Amino acid sequence: MSEPLTCDVVVVGAGMAGAACALYAARAGLEVTVVDRGHVAGGTTGAGEGNLLVSDKTPGPELDLALLSTRLWAREARELGAAVEYEAKGGLVVAETPEVLDKLRTFADAQRAAGVTADPVPAGRLHDLEPRLASGLAGAVYYPQDAQVMPALAAAHLLRASGARLLTGREVTRVLRAPDGSVRGVRTDRGDLHAPAVVNAAGTWGGELADRAGVFLPVLPRRGFVLVTEPLPPRIRHKVYAADYVADVASDSAALQTSPVVEATAAGPVLIGASRERVGFDRSLSLPAVRALAAGATRLFPFLSRVRALRTYAGFRPYLPDHLPAIGPDPRAPGLFHACGHEGAGIGLATGTGLLIAQALTGRTPDLDLTPFRPDRFPRPTKETER
Amino acid sequence: MRTDLVVIGAGPAGLAAALAASARGVRVVLVDAAPEPGGQFYRQPAPALRARRPQALHHRWRAWTRLRDGLAASTVRVLTEHHVWCVERESGGLTVHALPGPEQERSVEVRATAVLLATGGYETVLPFPGWTLPGVVTAGGAQAMLKGGLVVPGGTAVVAGTGPLLLPVATALAAAGVPVAALVESTGPRRLLRHAGALAGKLPEGAGYAARLLRHRVPFLARHTVVRAHGASGAGSGGDRLTGVTVAALDEHGSVRPGTERRLPCDTLAVGHGILPHTDLAEGLGCRLGGHAVAVDAEQRTDVPGVWAAGESTGVGGAAHALAEGHIAGRSIAARLRGTAPDPGEWAPAGRVRARMRGAAAALDSAYAPPARWTDRVTDDTVICRCEEVTAGAVREAVSLGAGDTRTVKLLSRAGMGWCQGRMCGPAVAGLTGCASAPSGRLLARPVPLGVLADAHREHEEHRDREVHREHEKHREKEEHRAYEDRTEEGPS
Amino acid sequence: MNPLERAGARPGPAFEVTFDGRPVEALPGRTVAAVLWAAGITSWRTTRGGGRPRGVFCGIGVCFDCLVTVNDRPGQRACLVPARPGDVIRTEEGTGRAH
Q1: B426-433 and B392-400 helices cross at what angle (nearest 10)?
Q2: CATH number at residue C53
Q3: H helix runs in B401-449, sequence order
Q4: Digit-coded pLDDT (tens) for A324-377
């Protein structure tokens, strides 16, 4: 075994969350090592669409985190915007029926009260914003704060900007604990890394990593398919999605749910999401899921019917039972911090998460109350409670 | 449509399997993307060209006529111009989804108890500066255009790269009246000789081609490579076009020998570096792969029940190998569909051919390995991903950003994200980055119009949704139960 | 000897298609790519990044380099699509779709 490396903090996971934690921790003056069993952006980050959304968040702790993250993303974009394909394109949430529009407007009112910019768009003005949208829609709400990045590039460039030491292809087999229970580093399949702090940014594998630290964190995968079209000229200007998406995001159902989320990319292809189903880590093609995605997207944008899908792939959103991430120190293992379980919002929430983690690591008062994100909020189930 | 067996691919393997199975009472539907059966190997001139001597540009003509006549006399139903984009596993069997061409604007389904994947392979080309110029084509592409369209691309050709395909392509072009300025093979004669023992008798046509090369006065440049392709603007219609190539001799390490570079004028370069199996449909089905090929057992069965594979998709071995595998697969399928185990003794001769040709394929692979230092000659401004115009410099930059496998290189560079989905640049990206070359798990084997998917959703919606919902609920309960149980049982205290 | 003679081809009468507005003679049975090659044309697409010319590369429908617009339908693989009398074939620029 090689000479143990030492640093101030080991971040486990070279995805978006890990990259943001590394960046803000390094800016706070800490020496950071990032370790990943795969490669940069090899997990959920590489399968995502790069949504930086406030529009789909219900007022509460997640929306507060989204608003903080949105501000931070805009700041990072001043330097890295082009490299990470940052686009402050705004989101357009459309309602297909007057009933749904009513609910959407009520939802937007509550969001506005929480600090979100949410502008109602009457049916007659929809096509000024989005000329190729289907006709006959009831109306929409426009969210200028919604933005987009290319997630893999974002993770890679934030990591590079952090100056952290990056160790890929190394699996953490155990989080090392001192006799007093405090964390003293990690054991990997290629040597130990010694540090007084370890950040769990392992995404869908965050539960497994918690396990390797001896604590319980019930992160589970929620599968989503993305359909990618042939490259097109810029025809879809915003992130456009149907209002029922908000209900699906918050849903507890395991069954397949799809609500169309459609957006163009800087490179040309249009990305179509978002299906949600809880089927473990099964990557094989689900035709019902991709058909439903296509049906939803062509309903919003009829011109897409004649556009071809070049590929589809599955990703796994890491979710916790109450749909909030785990962010902050773990009182069960002093020195262990969690930054995972962001479900489908991890790219957007990464910057805020990174900042909060850096503040926690350096003993500063975090910008947001971390209580709702406490990692020890889920009791370890016993056989009895399961049955 | 419902049948016993769908054979996907009407090349040697698919034809042999379809004939063997249908002769044993199996209802067979044979599906192929081309307008005529034959695959790449037995590609025929379009019937409307009314070629009276098609055999003049083909080899193994007699084997083809036997298959063709057998097919005509059989009960096999042939669906040509059907582009299969997905094979779906369902509780009642397998469903093959295909887009009828050339429009490819709707999808048809064929349901079957068994499916044979005889999807063949496609050519690998390793990049070099200038390889995107019009006039640079794959060796197999030049051959396909010649065999199918009876057309050649220009005045003077160079055939280059490595592998057993170059000889037949050079001789076919020469026979069709194209002056071939050189056949440039990167493998040296000594290396070929070293493998001669393994290759002897397995490439009976090799000697014949060599004689024909001589007859057509095609210079053979062994242990040489094309260093660069040159173009001139306005030489073709509407843009640049190839005007020549620089070739050079290679030393024993694969590096260019200084001072050996020289220019050969040509307006066509047919270039190839070997064949890769088509495995997209197998990957979509979840079949286990071994390297780049579909893994099969002695009966050509994959590890997915009801799915067989034969021919180049199981490993590149040539037409004789494909015929043998197809024959074995067809007999196995016939027996298994009757509910009986096949008797391997019945296909002993085909089994022997299969074993011999697999050995030959392995020998060919090691004999015709691409030159060791080819990446040295790929300048940073050379386009690697032809679809997305990603340069070698950008691919190398992805590695410095933290990419460590071909998937993350793709994510950070866009190499492989375009129309061909990395089929063309995959081996080059692997070579340039030092990442293991791996199949990339394309769940859609072809581009599919979103309208086709959407229509299917609406059709299936009513009678499928309820069933899907029920299944997922069941699955979820099981999953969640397992997930929690794992934690409670294995988690340290 | 050219390949048609070599194979003893006796195709039916040629028909006309147009390529970027000019007439091109086509033999029945040939693909769009074969028709264009026979007319000495080797590129009919420009890339959406660098605007570089492209034509046939793999010749068997795998590489999508030969994409062309036929009768206003963009993104057709010239090596697969048979030419038909009166086809209006146009160089495909970029995505092949007007803004």
Answers
A1: 50
A2: 3.10.20.440
A3: 406-413, 426-433
A4: 999 999 999 999 999 999 999 999 999 999 999 999 999 999 999 999 999 999
Residue of B nearest to C31 (CA): B149
pLDDT in tens, chain B (493 residues): 899 999 999 999 999 999 999 999 999 999 999 999 999 999 989 999 999 998 887 777 888 999 999 999 999 999 999 999 999 998 889 999 999 988 889 999 999 999 999 999 999 999 999 999 999 999 999 999 999 999 998 889 999 999 989 999 999 999 999 999 999 999 987 777 666 655 554 454 556 666 777 778 899 999 999 999 999 876 444 458 999 999 999 998 999 999 999 999 999 999 999 999 999 999 999 999 998 899 999 999 999 999 999 999 999 888 999 999 999 999 999 999 999 999 999 999 999 999 998 888 888 778 888 888 999 999 999 999 999 999 999 999 999 999 999 999 999 999 999 999 999 999 999 999 999 888 878 899 999 999 999 999 988 876 655 666 677 777 766 666 665 554 443 333 3
- What is the distance in angstroms between the Cα of C80 and the nearest Cα belonging to chain B? 7
The minimum CA-CA distance between B463 and chain A, rounded to whole Å, is 12
- Nearest-neighbour CA in chain A from B419: distance (Å): 7
Task: Work out the minimum CA distance from A319 to partner chain B, whole angstroms.
Answer: 13
Residue C51 forms part of a structural domain: yes
Which H or E run includes B248?
A: strand B241-249
The DSSP annotation for B142-188 comes to HHHHHHHH----SS-EEEEESSTTHHHHHHHHHHTT--EEEEEESS-
Sign of the dihedral defined by the CA atoms of residues A107, A111, A114, A119, in that order: negative
- C18 to chain B, any CB pair closer than 8 A? The answer is no
pTM: 0.92
Cβ atoms of residues B144 and C60 within 8 Å: yes
CB atoms within 10 A of CB A128: 8
Query: Which structural domain range is residue C60 located in?
Result: 11-92
Is the CB of residue C48 less than 8 Å away from at least one CB of chain A?
Answer: yes
What is d(CA B360, CA B356) in angstroms, rounded to the nearest whole number?
Answer: 6
Give me the residue from C75, C98, C99 closest to A230, CB to CB.
C75
Are B195 and B188 within 8 A, CB to CB?
no
- Using the Cβ of C65 and the Cβ atoms of chain B, whether some distance falls under 8 Å is answered with yes
3-state helix, strand, coil in chain A (%, to 5): 35, 25, 40
Chain C residues whose beta carbon lies within 8 Å of the beta carbon of residue A310: none
Q: Does B240 touch chain C (CB under 8 A)?
A: yes
Could you tell me if C86 lies within 8 Å of chain B, comparing CB atoms? no
- Please confirm whether the linkage preceding A274 is cis (ω < 30° from 0): yes
C2 belongs to a structural domain: no
Q: Counting beta carbons within 10 angstroms of the beta carbon of residue B384, is it exposed (0 to 12), middle (13 to 18) or buried (19 or more)?
A: buried
- Are residues A291 and B457, on separate chains, in Cβ contact within 8 Å? yes
Both tokens of B253, joined, read: 């390490």
> Within a domain: residue C4?
no
CB-closest option in C2, C28, C76 to B177: C2
Residue C80 within a domain: yes
Q: How far, rounded to the nearest angstrom, does the alpha carbon of residue B104 sit from its chain's CA centroid?
A: 21
Edge-first strand order for the sheet with A165-168 is A165-168, A32-36, A9-12, A197-200, A336-340, A326-329
Domain count of chain C?
A: 1
Q: Which domains does chain B show, CATH number per domain? A: 2-122+276-342 (3.50.50.60), 125-273 (3.50.50.60)
Asked if C74 has any chain A CB less than 8 Å from its own CB, the reply is no
Mutate to test the interface with C, among A232, A235, A265, A307 (most CBs of C within 10 A): A232
Q: What is the DSSP letter of A203?
A: G
Candidates C64, C95, C99: best to mutate against A (most CBs of A within 10 A) is: C95
Note whether C95 contacts A268, CB cutoff 8 Å.
Answer: yes
